[in-house]
Amino acid sequence: MTPFSLPPGYARIQRVQSFQELVATPFVDGVNALCWERPLAGDFGEVVRLLGAGEGIRPLDAAGLRALPVSAAGGVAVDAMLADLRLLQAHDLDPVLNCIDGYPRDEEPGPVVTDVFSFHADSAPVEASTYLCTYYGPASEGLRNDEAVRRVDLPATRAELLKLYGGADDADFRIYLNELCYDLHYAPAAGARPFSFGLGNFWRIAVDWPGSPVPPCVHRAPATGPGDPPRLLLIS
After folding, report:
1. CA nearest 35: which of 17, 8, 49, 47?
2. pTM
3. With contact defined as beta carbons under 8 Å apart, do 185 and 120 qualify?
4. Average pLDDT estimate for 24-29
């Protein structure tokens, strides 16, 4: 498993020691990300190899994973992923376990790219959190809030968006930005140092919801290229 190092001088991430702490610890005092750092045994790479080649995002279920002809180490990996799945389900969440060979890209022309490779915040109409764990492949990445700039607040980008909108920079324009999720995407500030969520670590991160006491955690799917291994990702 990949060790996780807290970004130096950054107080928005808090380590916890158990799943119960992960779900029960409130986001207060500016903390907007909780990390249960843990060493996971098992051969997750074997699971990926036995799943074979694929395209896009492939949902995995218990029956399919149990049917794989895994070794003892592969079986330990399968057990670990299914145990995490059950933990989230037991808390009335709807997690999905995926083997990700690639994500769709935002191919629409425009000044703000809105796919998962862009640093972004998740959003919800009511209080909610995002849970995630990368077991294999490139891990998710985070960006310190003080090193993130909303793309819609960059003068050149905002001018382009106003031109597309065809109206004034007013309340209706802000509704337009929100409806198209433009206001959820961020650019790294000069000198920004994105950090890895690491492998095997179970995260709960804050999302953008009305009344949230903390800012959302800015994150993205890792940039991948030809030859990179698929990801095993649990997310809710």
Report:
1. 17
2. 0.92
3. yes
4. 96
